[in-house]
Amino acid sequence: MKSTTPMYKLCVVLQSNLIYFRDAKLQYHRVNQAYKMLVQLTRPRKILYLPHHFSENLEDLLNHLPEDGQIVACVSSLEQHHLWKESSLEKKIHTKVGSIEDILKKLAASGEQYDMVFIDATEENPINYYNLIMNSNMLKMDGVICVQNVSANETGSQEHINDEIGLRSEEMTDVINVDTRVEQVALPVKGVIVTKRLPVSHINDTMKGVADDDVFRGFKGRSILDRLRLDGKVAYVTGGGQGIGRAFAHALGEAGAKVAVIDMVLEKAEAVANELGLKGIHSVAMTADISKEEDVKRVVDTIVANWKKIDIACNNAGINMNSASEDTTLEEWDKTFSVNLRGLFMCCQAAGRIMLSQGYGKIINTASMASLIVPHPQKQLAYNTSKAGVVKLTQTLGTEWIDRGVRVNCISPGIVDTPLIHSEALKPLVTRWLADIPAGRLAQVTDLQAAVVYLASEASDYMTGHNLVIEGGQSLW
Ligand SMILES: NC(=O)c1ccc[n+]([C@@H]2O[C@H](COP(=O)([O-])OP(=O)(O)OC[C@H]3O[C@@H](n4cnc5c(N)ncnc54)[C@H](O)[C@@H]3O)[C@@H](O)[C@H]2O)c1
Questions:
Q1: What amino acid positions are annotated as catalytic residues?
Q2: What is the band of 55 on the pLDDT scale with cuts at 50, 70, 90?
Q3: Per-residue pLDDT averaged across 135-144, rounded?
C-alpha cells in the first residue's frame, strides 16, 4: 500500500497471472471471486471493461451490478459477444467494437466517467489505456482500476517472465507503482492489481490556484455522500411497523444507523425489524402506544439502556379520522391530538432530554402537507389542525434546543400512495387529488426516504425548525 503524495484516486491491483500458472483453473476461480467481492464492496454503477479476451468473469460482474448498472465493454470483434448475447444481462452491457485506444479517446471526449475499470496488462498498449483513463478523468472520484495479469513479481513470486508479454506487464506495474494519484494494493491473487484514487490530503506546488478549504477537501475530509452516512448512530422510528415509518426505518438502517422499530402493533414492528436484520441492519422491535406517557418513557429508557444513546428520533406515528367539522366529536378531536400532537410532544421531550444531555441529536417529526393547505374534498379538521401544531412545535423546539446541539425538523408528505387509498371508497378521490398535483402522481414512500436520511445526518446540522414539504408541488397550486 503506497501513501506518498496523495492526490486524486485509489487504484487496486489484483494479480491474476493466469497465463503463467500451472493451476490456472484455481487461479481463474480466485480472480473471479476477487472481482465479485470488489464489485460487492465498491458497488460500481458504471464499469469500463477493456480486456480483449472476455470470460465468465464478465458475466459474474454483470450479475453483481445493480439493476441500473452498466458495463461498457471494448472488443476488437463482435464475435466475443457470445457470453451474454440474448441473456437477460444483455441490457446491462454496451459493446464498443474497434481499436481500444480510439474508443477510449471518444469516451473521454464525451466526458464519460466510470466507477471501475478493468485493464489487462498483457494487452498491446495497457500503459496508454491507463494514462488515457487517468489523465482524462475517466475514473470517478473514489473509482477503482483493476489491472490484471501484471508482473508475477508483484505478489512476491520468484518467477521471472522474460517474454514480451511478461515485460509489458512489468512495465505496467512500474507505471502504477510510481503514480502518486492512486493508492494501490496487490491482492494475493496472481497477476491483478487494483488501484483506487486517493483523496486529497494536502495541497502541493502542482496545484496552483486551488483553494485549500472545506469545499475542496470536503468538510472534515468527507465527501458529501459520506457526510450523509449514519454509521454508529442510534435511531428510533415510531409507527415504524408499516407505511412511511417502515420506509424511514429502512432508509436510516441502510445509511448505517441501528434502528429501534416502535409500533403499537408488536407483530408489525417485528416484521420490519426482521426485514432490517435480513439486510444486515442492527435493529430491534418495540411495542408502545405513543399517546401513553409510560410507554414513551419505557421505550426511550430501553433504547438508552441497550444502545447507550439516541442520536435520531423519528416521531412518525399518526392517525387520521375523517369527519365534517360540524360532526367532529370531542372524542375524535382528543384521540387525534393525543397521538398526533400530545404523543409526538412526549416523544420529542423524552428523546430531547437524552439528546440535550449528549449535546447532540436529530429529531425528525412527521407532519403533513395538511399543515399548509386544506386537502380536499375529504374533511379532516382535527388532523389538519394537529399537523399544523406539529409544525409549530417543531419550530419552537428547533430554535430552543439548537444551541445545545439538538436539531428539530419535520417532513410534510403530500398524499402518499398506501393500500389505504386503494379502497373503493377512496378511489374516486384519487382522481380529484391527481388533478391537484403538478407532479401528476401520488407520493411513494420511497420519495420520502432521502429526506429523512438528510435530516438525520450531520450534513443538515445548520437546519432546524424546518418543515420539509415533499408533495410533488401540490401545495403550490
Ligand atoms: N399516508 C399519507 O398520505 C400521509 C400524508 C402525510 C402525512 N402522513 C403522516 O405520516 C405518518 C405515517 O403515515 P402512514 O401513512 O405511514 O400511516 P399508516 O397508518 O400506514 O401507519 C402508521 C403506523 O403507526 C402505528 N401507530 C398508530 N398509532 C400509534 C400509536 N399511538 N403508537 C404507536 N404506533 C402507532 C400503526 O400501527 C401503523 O403501523 C403519520 O403521522 C401520518 O399522519 C401520511
A1: 383
A2: low
A3: 85
Peptide bond into 377 cis (omega under 30): yes
Q: What are the backbone dihedrals phi and psi of residue 413, each rounded to the nearest 5 degrees, phi first?
A: -75, 155
> Which range (195-199, 218-222, 356-360) has the least confidence?
195-199
Residue corresponding to grid cell 500458472: 21
Q: Is residue 3 part of a domain?
A: no
Question: Which pLDDT band, with edges at 50, 70 and 90, does 285 fall under?
Answer: very high
Is the model's pLDDT at 57 over the cut of 90?
no
The count of domains in the chain is 2
CATH number at residue 289: 3.40.50.720
- The CATH number of the domain holding residue 67 is 3.40.50.150
Smallest CA separation from ligand 1 atom 25, residue:
239
Beta bridge partners of 95: 73
Ligand 1 mean position, distance from CA 261 (Å)? 13
Task: Ligand 1, residue 290: give the atom nearest the CA.
Answer: 32
Range of 288's domain?
227-476
Instruction: Give the residue, by CA position, lying nearest to ligand 1 atom 30.
Output: 289
247 CB near ligand 1 (under 6 Å): no
Q: What percent of the chain has pLDDT over 90?
A: 54
Is 415:375 a contact under the CB 8 Å cutoff? yes
Beta carbon of 405 within 6 Å of any ligand 1 atom? no
CA–CA dist 257, 25 (Å, integer): 41
